[in-house]
Design a protein that fits this description.
The chain is mainly α. The protein has 17 helices and no strands. α6 (88-107) runs antiparallel to α16 (315-337), α7 (118-166) runs antiparallel to α13 (256-281) and α7 runs parallel beside α16. The chain is elongated, with a radius of gyration of 36 Å. It is found in: Cell membrane.
Length: 393
C-alpha cells in the first residue's frame, strides 16, 4: 500500500532530450517539420515593390539619357534640331565660304592665299576660353532662376499649410485660390504674355477657375499681374486682422502671430518675383556677346584659307562640322541665358512649378477644410462656432 501511494504521488519523469541518432532516424523517415515554401524576405520585397509602384514620384523636366543618342542624331540629320535651325543662316554662310575656298585652291593654287595653321592654332585657345566663359555665365543665370523658383514653391507651400488654420473658412478659401493663381501669373509675366487677356492665354484653364470676374478685371489692369495677385492676398490678410463675422476679438488676437507669418511669406513671394524680374531684365553684357560673335565669325570665315591647301575638297565637310560645333556652343549659351524664355524653350519648367503648387495647395485645403478650391464645392460662409487651430509654424 505504501509503495502504491509512493508510486502515485511520485512526480512525472522529465523528458529526455532526443539523441543525435534519434534525430537522424527521424530525418530519414521524414518526420521533421517541412521547410517553409515561401521566403518571408521575398514577400517583403514584393510588398515594397507594390508600395513603390503606388507612390507618386516627383515629376521632373525632360532629361537626357544615354538611350537618346540615336534620337538626337536623327533629329540633326533630318534638320529637326532647334539649335540647328537657329544657327542655319550662319552655318550656311560659312559652308559657302568653304566651297569658295576649296574651288579657289583647286583651280588657282598659285594665287591661293594660304594663311597657315599657326594663327588659328594660337587664336583658337582664346576662342575656346571665350565660349566657355560665355556658357558658364549663362548657366549661372539658369541656376539662379532654378533656386528662385524653388523658393516660390517653398513659400507657397508655407502659405497653404498655415492659411486653413489661421483664417476663417471663407477667407482661407479666397486666400488659397490666390496661392494657386500666383505661379501662373508669374509664369505669364516672365514669358512675355503678361499683357494679354488671361482668357486668351494657354494657361487660362488653369487660372480662370480660381478668379472671380471682378478679380480678373482688377488683375488685368496691373502691368505686373503677380504683384496684383499678391495685392489681393494682402487685402484678404488685412481684412482678417480686423473682426470677421463670427470671429470675436479674442480669436483675432490669438491668430495674429500666424497671420504675421502669412504676411511674411507673401513678402517673400514679392521678393522672389523681383529676383525673377532681375534675371529677365538684365541679360549678359551686350559687349561680351558681340565681341564673341565677331571673333567667332572672323575665325570661322578665314578657316578655309587654312584647311583648303591641306584637305582640298574634304575641307568643306570638315569646316561645316567645326562651325556647327562652335556655333552650337554659342547658341546654347544664348538659350540658357534666358531661363524664362518664351515657349517652347522654357528652361526652368515654370509650368511644372505652377502645377506642383496647384496640386499641393488644392490637396491641403481639401484635407483641412473640406473645400475644393477649383470647383468651390464645400465652401460655406464663416460659421460662428469657428475655432482657430494652432499650426506648426
Amino acid at each position: 500500500m505504501t509503495s502504491t501511494l509512493k508510486t502515485r504521488t511520485a512526480p512525472p519523469m522529465l523528458e529526455k532530450k532526443p539523441s543525435a541518432t534519434f534525430v537522424q532516424s527521424a530525418l530519414r523517415r521524414g518526420a521533421t517539420t517541412q521547410p517553409l515554401k515561401k521566403n518571408p524576405l521575398r514577400s517583403l520585397g514584393r510588398a515594397a515593390k507594390r508600395l513603390s509602384a503606388k507612390a507618386a514620384p516627383i515629376k521632373s523636366g525632360p532629361r537626357y539619357t544615354s538611350s537618346d543618342w540615336f534620337k538626337n542624331i536623327r533629329s540633326l540629320l533630318f534638320l529637326k534640331s532647334d539649335i540647328l535651325k537657329r544657327i542655319s543662316s550662319h552655318l550656311t554662310f560659312n559652308v559657302l565660304l568653304a566651297v569658295i575656298g576649296a574651288t579657289w585652291f583647286h583651280y588657282y593654287p598659285e594665287y591661293f592665299l594660304n594663311l597657315g595653321a599657326i594663327g588659328h592654332s594660337l587664336s583658337g585657345a582664346a576662342l575656346s576660353l571665350l565660349l566657355v566663359f560665355r556658357t558658364n555665365s549663362a548657366y549661372d543665370r539658369f541656376w539662379e532662376a532654378r533656386k528662385i523658383l524653388g523658393a516660390v514653391v517653398d513659400n507657397s507651400r508655407g502659405l497653404a499649410r498655415i492659411a486653413p488654420t489661421a483664417l476663417p473658412p471663407k477667407a482661407a478659401a479666397d486666400f488659397g485660390r490666390m496661392i494657386v493663381a500666383f505661379p501662373y501669373m508669374l509664369r505669364l509675366h516672365l514669358t512675355g504674355r503678361g499683357q494679354k487677356p488671361i482668357s486668351e492665354t494657354s494657361d487660362a484653364p488653369d487660372v480662370l477657375p480660381f478668379f472671380d470676374k471682378d478679380q480678373i478685371k482688377t488683375v488685368e489692369t496691373y502691368f505686373s499681374r503677380p504683384f496684383a495677385t499678391l495685392s489681393l492676398m494682402n487685402q484678404i490678410l488685412h481684412s482678417a486682422q480686423s473682426k470677421y463675422p463670427g470671429e470675436d476679438q479674442a480669436k483675432t488676437l490669438e491668430m495674429l502671430p500666424q497671420r504675421h507669418i502669412l504676411q511674411r511669406n507673401v513678402n517673400l513671394l514679392a521678393a522672389n518675383t523681383g529676383a525673377c524680374e532681375r534675371i529677365q531684365g538684365c541679360p549678359v553684357p551686350l559687349s561680351y556677346s558681340r565681341h564673341l560673335s565677331r571673333y567667332l565669325t572672323l575665325w570661322s570665315a578665314t578657316l578655309p584659307l587654312v584647311l583648303a591647301p591641306m584637305l582640298q575638297w574634304w575641307s568643306i565637310p570638315v569646316i561645316a562640322a567645326i562651325c556647327w560645333s562652335l556655333f552650337s556652343i554659342e547658341e546654347v549659351g544664348h538659350m540658357i541665358e534666358e531661363p524664362f524664355f518664351a515657349l517652347p524653350y522654357d528652361q526652368v519648367q515654370t509650368k511644372r512649378v505652377a502645377d506642383v503648387i496647384k496640386r499641393d495647395t488644392v490637396a491641403m485645403f481639401k484635407q483641412q477644410l473640406g473645400v475644393d478650391l477649383e470647383t468651390r464645392e464645400g465652401l460655406q460662409s464663416p460659421a460662428p462656432q469657428w475655432q482657430p487651430q494652432p499650426a506648426l509654424v
